[in-house]
Amino acid sequence: MTNMSTTASTVDYRALYGPMIDRLTRLGRSLSAGQWQAPSLCDQWRACDIFGHMTYGGVTPLPKVLPVLLLKHRGNLN
After folding, report:
1. Alpha-carbon gap, residue 22 to 58, rounded angstroms
2. For each successive 10 residues of the chain (78 residues), what is the average pLDDT?
3. 38 within 8 A of 46, measured Cβ to Cβ
4. pTM for the whole thing?
5. In 18, 35, 71, 76, which residue has its Cα 20 to 30 A from 1's Cα atom?
6. Are 24 and 16 in contact, with CB atoms under 8 Å apart?
7. To 5 degrees, how large is the angle CA 41–CA 42–CA 43?
């Protein structure tokens, strides 16, 4: 685990990316159909919605996503 006093500029996020993807992949493959559809702690979100939200940005470059988000939310991303 990263020391809480470590600044963002000293963390090698690229080195963390591979292990994070591996862990998320194992988690996703371990869930049953019922677990994928289970409600989450977020109102009106299922486990599959949370998983998609967490993983979509990791494989989709921001320049491809940003125009869609801006259009969808009429320029307001707050």
Report:
1. 12
2. 60 86 92 96 92 76 80 79
3. yes
4. 0.56
5. 35
6. no
7. 110
